[in-house]
Structures are given as structure tokens and as C-alpha cells.
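Residues determine shape. Take a concrete instance:
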Amino acid sequence: MLYFQTPVIKKLSSQKEPEIGKAKILALRYLEKCKATRQSVREDKNGIFIITDLTSIQTEILHQQARLPKYISDKSAPQINAFKPSLFKSVMNFTGILGYYNPFTGEAQYNAELPHTLIPFTSAHESSHQLGFAREQEANFIGYLIGVNSKNTDLRYSTEYFTLKSLLRFIVEEDPEFVKSVLKQYSPAMKRDRMYERSFIFRHQGWLDDFFGFTNNLFLKSNQQEGAVTYSYFIDLLLNYEK
């Protein structure tokens, strides 16, 4: 029944159609945020972003859950660390599934083999389901609210980077040259992170990804959600929330 709750967009003061112009402004803003935050995180020997303290990220997510705006979420945050690496990580690598919420155990499960740029935000996203946000793009938005103002730089960088990528995906069909320009402005460290993400995806693409992408689309649409391809609802929420 959670899919039939009042949509988060109805709780925002603005409910305008997304505008490319505003998306571009935000993309440039988040580019600068990413570049700045990236300087404060750790790297491996190849210069790729790495997480050194996952527990502190998980603790921070729980802390930020309790600080969500009351007009968006009036649910009590459980404050229980129920994050768990999935046992199915090898299969998940080939399906494009970053994480999932287990409603039977209440655990926010994630793929521990993902590039580390993805793990903090994925954890925040899955924790949003624990708060009762069943719609995937609303969970993205709640994950964004959890991470974007965090003092934990790993969580904040992962969130800012997800937000930037989402904005660029939204813009690219209308203005691919703008997106190319932004990608060129990535810092050298961000470019390394991007290449590592891309290499991970290319290594694990295959028929399982096609199959699970198709079935996940059917599931999302059957529960009054958009398919996995567009992700425009998150952009609707983001652009109406950001000033």
C-alpha cells in the first residue's frame, strides 16, 4: 500500500514542470560541489575514490534520517543500523541492481563490490525504503536529502556525484554539447572515478542486465512508477526543491 501514499511532489511548495535552464544551472552548481568535496576524500593507489570507514557513513545516514524536513517525512527514524552487504553481489554485478530493501528483515542491502562512488548514496537510498518511501525515485530524493548536507565527506561526495549525473542524463537529449562541456570540466580525480565506474559497467554488461532491466521496468510500472529508463521524477523533485 506504500505505493499509494501521497506523492512527495505534492508536499513541495513548487510543482512546476522541469526546466532545462534550471537543470543546467544546478548541474554547474553540483559540478563545483563535487570538485570541492572530491578534494577531501581518500583515494586508492590508482587515484580512485575509496571508502575507509563504512560504519561512520551508515551512522551518519541514520543521523540525517532524523533531520529530514517534517513536511516531507514525519516518520520516526528507526536509528537501527540495518545495512548489510548482499550475499548476491556477483549476480547483482550483472543485473545493474545496486541495492535493495528486504521488507522481511528490514535490512537495506547493498552490493559491496560496486565502485565506492555508488555505495554511500545507494545505502542512503535503500535506507529511505525503511522510512516507508516505496517509490524508487522518491527514495532517490530522500537519499539526496540525507546526503547532500552531510558532514561526512564520503556520503556527501557520493550524493553530489549522483545528483550531477542525474542532471546530466536529463539534459543530454536536449543539449548534448552542454553535457560534453561539463564532463570536460570534471576535475582529474572525478574523471578517474568516472572512468572506473564506466569500466565496471562495461565489464558486467550482458543478457542478465537486459533481462532484469526489462522485468524491473514491468515491476515499476505495475506499481504506478516510471520505468527504470527515464528517472525524470527524481529530477522533478530536485528542481522543485532546489532554489
User: Anything to note?
Assistant: Confidence is low (pLDDT under 50) at residues 86-98, 207-230. The first strand starts at residue 42 and ends at 43. The chain is about 55% helix and 5% strand.
